[in-house]
Specification:
The structure holds 3 protein chains of 3 kinds. Chain A has 11 helices and 2 strands. Chain A has a two-stranded antiparallel ribbon with strand order 1-2. The relative contact order of chain A is 0.20. By secondary structure, chain C is mostly helical. Chain C has 14 helices and 2 strands. In chain C, helix 4 packs antiparallel against helix 10 and helix 7 packs antiparallel against helix 10. The longest helix of chain C has 27 residues. Chain C is globular, with a radius of gyration of 19 Å. The chains are: A mainly alpha, B alpha/beta, C mainly alpha. Chains in contact: A-B, A-C, B-C.
Chain lengths: 286, 393, 310
């Protein structure tokens, strides 16, 4: 029983982080109908920035983490402005461009940061005992709390601010939105940047637990895509629910069925959803 | 159009350049992981090669010519390894290839060696089949799974009275092979054991470690090669499995890489690992010379024993070419079979009886070492021990 | 014939001559490079059929090659089935999977197809990696060669013949009525479907043929290397195929052929300095996709047209 609770807890924690990662993708898909294949790479770049800012430059992690996220935000903005924007209307080329970009970033990470896993320093060490049943790492609990905070902030951003309203307007009807005076190009750029920043946030939160490596990015991108499809493209609620479901399923599946197939649960979900209910749990039926 | 011309010029000058330098030296091939999770071994190889070349060329080189090495990257995976060997055989046309530190890669390479009939001396790929296949062109001057387990790991476990053994093995040829041999030995001893499988490039072992905790082992034989081992050791400590259960790194080098202490922190204390090198254990004068020259050249003590392994096989190759007075493959194989050469770990003599892994095999003595206060202490075998085994609480 | 076609024809003849007599001049090493290039010609051209001509970006192409390689390889190792038969079986299975996948996803549009093929590709790779009792996973599976006696020249001609066959099939497809529908669908799907073209059927057919071709290419590749690993159905290989088509020129006939040879030969040279060729190709592919979507062929054609006009 204690074991089951531990796996469940692990699943919840990972699930929330999956959700943040997925929101980054979902936002961009919802507005721009563009899938950012380079999502995982932005995640690891944030991890690498966090590592180097803390350990190589000696900044405190409290400073390094947000700073890394800002750097990745800027990367996203630049990507949108110079690479994605010119391909508007052409779905095919944006797919190709982000896919190629992901390969470029992956290889660049290998060249710039080296092949070894980089682990930014943990903020809290030790483990907490849960009702005396099992020990759970404190850093993981801390990550959980921060992730919830970020999720709430994003929801607030989308529901209450002008930015959020513009985003929702554009994803419903782009032409109408721009006729109403919304600068849709600017919103696109900021959304892409925000998507990147969310990937980066997930990265800096997780990196102290699971070090970043140049090859780890594909798994992260793919997990995010599965969550987005499961939850429904463009649905933020879907990302949270999907992320939790995936996190729990993967952890329980790995524990009770087979550790080697941990990642396959996600993909099977992907294919099943796409075949039987392509719009996901909460997506719009187009 | 201009671009095409530029490319053509580049290509032609390259071809001319590579032809011009071909004549005055003898090149041998080295295969090893210069990239990938075991890239640190590639670095270790580079260092060993450098010292070997210094020694050999100082004594007049090979057949009067300077000896050079072409070091092809295997990336630690068999498809790249086979391709690397093929390049050495067809593009560089080396008379002999040495090296390798991954069993799966080696198993792929020996097929290519057989196809092109190029002699191949392996230094650190341990799977029995590599020599058990009895390929005429394949030699091994290095550890073999059965030897390592039968003569070192199993007796170590028995002698120090461990009661419950956990085997954690990666899904690579080496991992599978050494785990099977270990299980065989444990069954013979009547020692209870449990085996867990992990993915080769895994970084998260929480699930497996939680299962292990329930089994209550007092020794964990970790057959994981690469930085994955670091995560295993660190996480074992986090979950509370170690240091109550001691962990033995069945390969060795990952516990010796620079990044080890960075990645495991205090979890590295009391960790055990296999090695064939220790500063206080010098079996031959060559060993001492290697140690001193390494210190002089690199400004630090050698730490990764694979620097010596590659040094040894380069020496063996050069010695064979010199004695054969030729670079033809048949002559080299005959010369290799007659090898009687002193290297850092003893005197090399290859087995000649067909039918088992001992054909064309020579195994150096190994050591079981423990980290105590970040210092290496040899704890097995008794004759070479520099200290006693410390247990964890 | 207009001038462009005329020039193409005259480049073609000596080219054929060259390819037939090449193996007698080349060293074993360069012959090997040629054979690998031909494998990529098969892969890039068949991927171009769906991506360049019908606008569907599939990421499962390398996976289908993996299907061909592993089906054929495992049949040979476990049941002694000769390579030529194994490859045919592998091709059929790849084609069937392509049909199934195509039928399920194509009705849902571009992004969904890309995501599904991505998912399918990774699932396949994970299954192959983990079922190592059968496939030996990342340790690699030794499989018998296509020919009983190993001869690089034989493999060269084998690959050459199959590549030529693929190109002929693709050429006929594009020039046929079906091919016109392909391009109609690519250029304006709405218009195409309102003029009665069953766009879905057209795409599914192209996807099936393309997957079968990838399967055959994979089978041949496996029996040439005599070693198969989960690297074959990997996204890394997928990227190479994509880069070759994009850099060579998507939507053109010669583009993928050119891309395959150029990138494969270049990578051999770049590898001397280190594993930079992937990064380099990525940057070039990105540049092409952004600034010169027609690839090298697109640039060349523009040059020829401009020169004609002046």
């Amino acid at each position: 029983m204690a074991e089951f609770l531990m796996y469940l807890t692990n699943g919840l924690v990972m699930g929330v982080i999956n959700a943040i990662s997925a929101i980054g993708v979902s936002l961009v898909v919802g507005i721009m109908r563009v899938i950012n294949f380079a999502h995982g790479e932005l995640y690891i770049f944030a991890g690498y920035f966090s590592y180097h800012l803390s350990l190589t430059l000696g900044l405190s992690p409290i400073l390094a983490m947000p700073l890394s996220v800002i750097f990745v935000f800027l990367m996203g903005v630049l990507m949108e402005r110079f690479l994605i924007r010119p391909t508007y209307g052409d779905e095919m080329y944006s797919l190709i461009i982000t896919f190629v970009l992901s390969i470029i970033l992956q290889n660049s990470a290998l060249l710039i940061f080296g092949p070894y896993p980089n682990k930014p320093p943990t903020l809290i060490s030790g483990a907490t005992s849960f009702f005396g049943l099992f020990h759970y790492g404190n850093q993981r609990l801390f990550s959980f709390i921060i992730s919830i905070a970020i999720l709430l902030s994003v929801f607030y951003l989308i529901k209450r601010t002008w930015f959020g309203k513009s985003v929702r307007a554009i994803s419903q009807d782009r032409e109408m939105a721009s006729l109403m005076g919304i600068d849709h190009l600017k919103v696109n750029m900021l959304s892409f940047g925000l998507g990147a920043a969310l990937a980066g946030a997930a990265g800096v939160i997780i990196a102290p637990i699971f070090p970043v490596t140049p090859t780890g990015s594909s798994a992260i991108s793919l997990t995010a895509f599965v969550v987005v499809v499961l939850g429904g493209m463009g649905s933020l609620k879907g990302c949270v629910v999907g992320g939790l479901i995936l996190g729990i399923l993967e952890n329980l599946g790995a524990a009770y069925i087979s550790t080697m197939y941990r990642h396959i649960f996600g993909f099977i979900i992907l294919i099943l959803v796409l075949v039987f209910r392509p719009w996901g749990l909460f997506g719009q039926r187009t | 159009m201009r671009r095409v011309v530029f490319l053509v010029v580049l290509v032609v000058s390259f071809i001319i350049g590579s032809l011009a330098f071909a004549q005055e030296t003898i090149k041998i091939g080295v295969v090893g992981p210069r990239t990938g999770p075991a890239a640190a071994t590639g670095k270790a190889f580079e260092e060993g090669i450098a010292i070997a070349l210094d020694h050999i060329n100082a004594k007049g080189g090979v057949l009067g010519k300077k000896l050079e090495v072409v070091f092809e990257d295997t990336g630690g995976v068999p498809e790249k390894a086979a391709s690397a060997f093929e390049k050495l055989a067809t593009r560089d046309r080396v008379p002999i290839v040495v090296g390798e530190s991954h069993s799966s890669s080696a198993l792929a390479e020996i097929e290519v060696a057989n196809r092109y009939k190029v002699p191949f001396i392996i230094c650190e790929a341990w799977h029995d089949d590599i020599t058990k296949k009895n390929y005429r062109w394949v030699f091994r001057a290095g550890p073999v799974n059965s030897g390592v387990v039968d003569f070192y790991i199993a007796p170590f476990v028995k002698e120090h009275g461990f009661k419950k053994v956990a085997i954690v093995r990666e899904n690579s040829d080496w991992g599978v092979g050494i785990a099977e041999r270990t299980e065989f030995n444990m069954k013979n001893f009547g020692l209870p054991f449990v085996t867990l499988k992990v993915e080769r490039e895994s970084k998260d072992f929480y699930t497996e470690l939680t299962k292990l905790k329930g089994e209550n082992p007092d020794i964990i034989l970790a057959y994981i090669y690469g930085t994955g081992l670091h995560f295993f050791v660190a996480q074992a400590h986090e979950v509370g499995v170690s240091p109550k259960a001691l962990i033995l790194d069945g390969a060795g080098p990952p516990s010796l890489w620079d990044s080890f202490w960075k990645n495991v922190g205090k979890a590295g204390e009391l960790e055990l690992f296999m090695s064939s090198m220790h500063e206080k254990v010098h079996l031959t004068p060559t060993s001492r010379k290697f140690w001193e020259d390494y210190k002089k050249k690199f400004g630090k003590d050698p730490s990764d024993y694979k620097t010596r392994s590659i040094y040894n096989v380069v020496l063996i190759a050069a010695d064979a070419i010199n004695r054969a007075r030729s670079t033809t493959n048949e002559a080299l194989v005959e010369a290799l079979e007659k090898t009687n050469l002193e290297v850092t770990t003893g005197i090399v003599k290859f087995g000649l009886k067909l039918g088992s892994y001992e054909y064309h095999q020579w195994m150096p003595p190994m050591l079981v070492v423990q980290w105590q206060d970040q210092k290496q202490v040899v704890v097995f075998p008794k004759e070479a021990a520099t200290g006693g085994l410390k247990r964890g609480r | 014939m207009d001038k462009v076609e005329f020039m193409r024809f005259w480049i073609f003849i000596p080219f054929i001559f060259l390819t037939l007599f090449l193996p007698f001049f080349l060293s074993q090493y360069w012959l090997h490079v040629m054979i690998i290039s031909l494998f990529y010609v098969m892969m890039a051209s068949s991927w171009n059929l769906i991506a360049g001509y019908t606008g569907q970006i599939s990421f499962a192409h390398a996976a289908f090659a993996g299907v061909g390689a592993y089906v054929s390889g495992m049949l040979a190792v476990n049941m002694g089935i000769p390579a030529w038969l194994g490859i045919l079986i592998g091709t059929s299975i790849a084609g069937l999977l392509g049909l199934g996948l195509g039928y399920l996803c194509i009705r849902m549009g571009g992004i969904y197809l890309s995501l599904t093929t991505l998912g399918f590709s990774e699932i396949l790779r994970i299954i192959i990696t983990n079922e190592d009792r059968w496939t030996r996973g990342t340790m690699g599976l030794q499989i018998p060669g296509f020919f009983i006696e190993y001869s690089k020249m034989s493999y060269y001609f084998l690959f050459l013949i199959v590549s030529a066959f693929f190109l002929w099939v693709i050429y006929r497809l594009i020039r046929s009525e079906m091919g016109l529908s392909f391009r109609a669908v690519l250029n304006d799907e709405l218009a195409a479907s309102s003029s009665g073209i069953d766009t879905i059927r057209v795409r599914i057919l192209a996807f099936t043929i393309s997957s079968a071709m990838a399967g055959m290419a994979g089978g041949l590749y496996g029996h040439y290397l005599m070693l198969i690993t989960p690297d074959i159905p990997s996204l890394g290989q997928m990227f190479l195929v994509l880069a070759m088509a994009v850099i060579g020129g998507m939507g053109s006939f010669i583009g993928p052929i050119l891309g395959a040879f150029v990138l494969e030969i270049l990578s051999e040279y770049i590898r001397i300095y280190g594993e930079y060729h992937v990064l380099l190709f990525g940057l070039v592919a990105l540049g092409m996709a952004r600034f010169a979507p027609g690839g090298i062929m697109g640039l060349l054609e523009k040059r020829w047209r401009l020169r004609e006009m002046s």
